[in-house]
UniProtKB/TrEMBL annotation:
Domain of life: Archaea
UniProt cross-references to InterPro entries, sorted A to Z: BolA, BolA-like_sf, BolA/IbaG_stress_morph_reg
Protein name: BolA family protein
The family this protein is said to belong to: Belongs to the BolA/IbaG family.
Organism for this UniProt entry: Halobaculum litoreum
Residue ranges of the region described as Disordered: 1-31
Pfam families: BolA
Bias (Low complexity) ranges: 1-12
Length: 87
């Protein structure tokens, strides 16, 4: 899975979502550990706890979380939160 694949999966799995996925560290050529960082903005996060928001992201990535993704750093925002505090 590439960062673009992860981004597409998140955007497809969460309503009105905009995701930016990066690789925060260089891949280790001796291991197949894929480390990703995702910033995800969606009104679907409104009224949900941080754990519930992150679960939506994990669900969107699906089976890749157990097969192709070693780690996923997640930052979630509603559109309003992102306008105030986003990166």
């Amino acid at each position: 899975m590439t960062a673009a694949d992860a981004e597409a999966a998140i955007e497809a799995g969460i309503e009105d979502c905009e995701a930016t996925v990066t690789t925060p560290r260089a891949p280790d050529p001796d291991h197949e550990d894929a480390h990703f960082a995702a910033v995800v903005v969606s009104p679907a996060f409104e009224g949900k706890s941080l754990v519930q928001q992150h679960q939506l992201v994990y669900d969107a990535v699906g089976d890749a979380m157990t097969k192709e993704v070693h780690a996923l750093e997640i930052k979630t925002y509603t559109p309003e939160e992102y306008a105030e505090h986003g990166e």
